[in-house]
Amino acid sequence: MAAAPTGPADRHAFDAARFTELVESAGPGDWSRPSPVAEWTALDIVAHLVEWSRGLRTLLHRTG
User: How far apart are CA 18 and CA 12, in angstroms?
Assistant: First the structure.
């Protein structure tokens, strides 16, 4: 893997690409696996991160 970028936009793109790789590599049985968050599954974590980022993007577009 290449070295992580240092600028904020490049860092976000790097992290988003890695997140996408992880999500796309998950098999059907992976989604119901427990997560480090009590009572949450892997699917719950991914859904939370996706919804949170969409909400943040919406907020930033309204205030930017």
Answer: 10
Given a contact cutoff of 8 angstroms between Cβ atoms, the answer to whether 37 and 45 are in contact is yes
CA dihedral 35, 37, 41, 43 (to 10 degrees): -100
What percent of the chain shows pLDDT beyond 70?
A: 84
Q: Specify the amino acid at residue 6.
A: T
pTM exceeding 0.70: no
- The span from the first CA to the last CA of the chain, in angstroms, equals 33
DSSP H helices in 1-64: 8-25, 42-63
> ∠ at Cα 9 (62, 31), nearest 5°?
85
